[in-house]
Specification:
By secondary structure, the protein is an all-alpha fold. It has 21 helices and no strands.
């Protein structure tokens, strides 16, 4: 398939008025290779002028990258969790499946999804974002559409397996992609805005399901079938549009002028990020991630929020239905908890960027979730339990984007970061297998005590406890580096070799 080049007026080779003012010609940069730094385009400008240029550049990046990527993740999360809404309007009865078979279908999605994730960021880097992301979207949109055409348990299982396989590259891929554009103290708020699309999809999904459910009987299809068919077709259309709306990495992005491209690379270089370099993949980057203790502790922390996330998003309509509300009421009542979670997610992203205290933010927010699920476990009043779902959402959603940003901040090297994000997110999503099986129909009479108890344990042990341990260990490691205890690692090395050490080099200070 031959794709048109994405052009922008900013990428034309005639110098802009700003470039003329500072005496820069595009030809100064035309002979540079990908990722190479040319002459400073802002040399000789005052700090105030530099700051103004930097703000305008950041605003341009935000407008071009964030809104469309948020839409993509909203669609992705909607497509993987809409089965929870479909369940309330007759999915199980139509397909003649039991509650156990329904949970098995949920679990199979996470198996293919999680096992594929560690490799997807390597494919993203090698195939280019502007090709890889639209391609996987079209693939899972087709699968989602066919899910509305299944007639039995086998068909549902096959659709869920391939849906997980196709969707696996989006979430780790976009987080990795954004971390290659922004400085470490800028990435958190953008990751939070991006992930808040998941909370918005929860709100939107409930409203959409309530509306589409009224199509029951049209074309001989049940309402749950139309949920999958219409949302799948929308995904295919958005995937096609993404060939023009998703851009490549900073060293190849066509919406930037040559001068602005140099500015992006320089600000990443100043932040000690290898995203400013054009690395070629080597297996040593993979093994560097696997051997890093931080990778595995972050995986534990991420499972502490991702397991509860999927339990919450897949079963919230069921939980609310179990409080005595009818299916349509349950769909609508699932909207407010997601809305408040989206607001707190962005707020925590902003706070963590400003304070650089991501571990403390994780610990503080997780307490809200712990209280919420304690209320679900102990309270008998439907009103108190519904309030518990609000606190549960507040304690889970902000920690997803904050943890991913924490991982990105503390993993240096383009491919090492990509592999680490794949491992962390993949392990977290594998816990969706657990999440899919802890809310059983037979537990409805006891208020889903087993499910609430498992989520409560994940929040206490893995999210809060793991974040506390990581915080202590990173703080100790920073103290060693500041004291010069690791300086011997750089003896006899050139500046290039020291830089290639990534986050192992002694002058790299971890974000707490």
């Amino acid at each position: 398939m031959s794709l048109p080049e994405k052009q922008d007026s900013d990428s034309a080779h005639s110098p802009s008025s700003e470039e003329k003012k500072i005496g820069v010609e595009p030809s100064d940069f035309e002979t540079l290779g990908h990722g190479e730094l040319g002459p400073d385009p802002d040399a000789g400008l005052s700090e105030e002028e530099r700051a103004n240029i930097d703000r305008r550049l950041l605003w341009k990046l935000d407008l071009r990258l964030i809104p469309w990527l948020c839409l993509l993740y909203l669609i992705s999360f909607l497509d993987r969790t809409n089965i929870g809404n479909a369940r309330l309007i007759g999915l199980e009865d139509s397909l003649n499946i039991t509650g156990g078979q329904y949970n098995a279908a949920l679990s199979l999605f996470f198996v293919s999804y999680a096992l594929s994730e560690p490799l997807t960021n390597i494919l993203l880097k090698r195939l280019r974002p502007s090709v890889f992301i639209p391609a996987i979207m079209i693939a899972w949109g087709i699968v989602m559409t066919t899910m509305g055409l299944v007639h039995n348990f086998s068909g549902l299982m096959a659709a869920r397996f391939f849906l997980g396989l196709a969707e696996a590259g989006l979430f780790p891929g976009i987080n990795y992609y954004l971390s290659c554009w922004y400085r470490r103290d800028e990435f958190g708020i953008r990751a939070a805005i991006f992930f808040s699309a998941a909370a918005v999809s929860g709100s939107f999904g409930g409203l959409l399901a309530a509306a589409i459910g009224n199509m029951d009987g049209i074309g001989g299809k049940r309402g749950w079938s139309w949920i999958f068919i219409l949302e799948g077709l929308a995904t295919v259309l958005i995937g096609i549009a993404s060939f023009w709306m998703v851009f490549d990495f900073p060293d190849e992005a066509t919406f930037l002028s040559d001068v602005d491209r140099q500015r992006v690379l320089r600000r990443l270089k100043a932040d000690q990020q290898s995203s400013a370099e054009h690395e070629e993949f080597q297996m040593s980057y993979f093994w560097a991630s696997v051997r890093d203790w931080k990778t595995w502790l972050y995986a534990v922390i991420y499972m502490g929020c991702d397991g509860p996330l999927y339990a919450f998003s897949l079963f919230l309509p069921t939980i609310i239905n179990g409080l005595g509300y009818k299916s349509t009421e349950a769909q609508l009542l699932s909207v407010p908890p997601y809305a408040v979670a989206a607001i707190l997610t962005v707020t925590i992203g902003y706070i963590a960027d400003r304070t650089r205290q991501r571990g403390l933010c994780n610990m503080g927010v997780s307490v809200l979730g712990i209280i919420g699920f304690a209320m679900l476990l102990s309270a008998e009043s439907p009103g108190v339990q519904y309030a518990g779902t609000f606190l549960g959402a507040l304690g889970i959603y902000p920690c997803i984007s904050n943890t991913i940003t924490w991982v990105s901040n503390n993993t240096e090297g383009v491919y090492k970061r990509g592999v680490t994000l794949g491992i962390v997110i993949g392990w977290g999503n594998l816990n969706g297998v657990v999440s899919s099986n802890i809310y059983q129909k037979r537990d409805a009479k006891t208020g889903y005590q087993t499910g609430h108890g498992v989520v409560f344990s994940y929040l206490v042990l893995f999210l809060c406890g793991g974040s506390a341990l990581q915080y202590v260990l990173l703080r100790r490691e920073n103290a060693r580096r500041r004291a010069g205890e690791l300086d011997h690692l750089t003896v006899g090395k050139t500046e290039k070799e020291i830089e290639a050490m990534g986050d192992v080099r002694p002058n790299f200070i971890y974000t707490l």
